[in-house]
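Q: Predict the bound structure with thiamine diphosphate.
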Amino acid sequence: MTQATAASSEHTQMNTAKADSPASGLAPTAKTATELPKEVLVKWLYDMQLIREFENRTMQAYQQAKIGGFCHIYTGQEAVAVGTIGCTNSDDPVITAYRDHGHALARGMSPESCMAEMFGKTTGCAKGKGGSMHMFDRPNWLFGGHGIVSAQTPMGAGFAFSEKYQLEVMGIGKKKVTLCYMGDGALDQGCFHEAQNLASLWDLPVIYILENNGYSMGTAINRHTANSENLIDRAKGYGIKAAKIDGLDIMNIYNEFKPIVDECRETSRPAFIDLKTYRYQGHSMSDPQKYRTKEEVDTYKDKDSIAKLCSDLMHMGHIDEAGWKSMRKVISDIVRASVEHAENAPIPEAGELYTDVYANPQKNLSPTATYTHGTKNPLM
Ligand SMILES: Cc1ncc(C[n+]2csc(CCOP(=O)(O)OP(=O)(O)O)c2C)c(N)n1
Ligand SMILES: [Mg+2]
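A: Predicted complex:
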């Protein structure tokens, strides 16, 4: 058994799935987060720390030029991905923008697969052809990772439409909620308004989660969008239920977001959530950050979501100093192993440029037929 597998089996034992825990496939259910099983709460801490450590190693690897292209770090925003995904069933569709490593890990992608994707290696989730901005994980219902600002918002409505159509017209499937994440920059794109219009008109069960980290690249939100203190009124203009939630406290996210998910699943009505959060790093790995002060960043670091959850769990007696230390060691070993894995994994053959280009490349193939991963485009 390698160090990493030993560490991961230790983690599995530590967080053995119980009914009502995320690992059972169903969102955990309790009136308030403090009433959730200890295993669920400890797993949140684990997942948030996994993302934090993963991003530390990502930055190192990027600085060593082992990762190329654009790379956007999720540090500071961990409570959003872990808390909101923690309110969903494991087969609810999730789609997001390019700051996507946290969502991929929170959805259950293995750190090896995520890291290898960034290294451009064949064992990455998209065979190394997508990179940092395009994390896809079909078995875990994660549909990207999208680099064009707001491009995912109409697709979010599309996933909700597809699931609803299957249930109500084809008589298959079940009630699902689509989570569509977006940055504050996406608020200003026309397609988001079109998506909200159709989501409301057609009763689509999609929740738009605004990860409001205050900046679109180097432009502060009050300089790029109108009435930025009152964004929920816009959604209300489309008849969409909207709420503003503090995104730095994961317990609070559960308490306020879980009822919205339940209502969306039940009523098939869309929702819009303005989740206030903050990114500790620059917009991407090449950002001198002249648009904000160190003091501002420190103010948010003082309210760090991982430190907050850890302290809450210690007060509740769910974890102690020794447990927290050993959890961090387990995670550190797993992430280090993921970097080693990515370094040693093969790079794609040149011929891979011609595979996976079209979803359905075979002539006369039924549009509903299953696509075979790796199928070569016969025209090339
Ligand atoms: C349509 C489009 N316009 C411009 C860009 C360039 N661009 C990349 S990221 C970005 C800022 C987006 O910020 P935000 O949506 O707040 O997300 P965050 O980086 O804060 O997560 C811009 C303008 C783009 N990718 N797509
Ligand atoms: Mg932003």
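A: The chain is about 40% helix and 10% strand.
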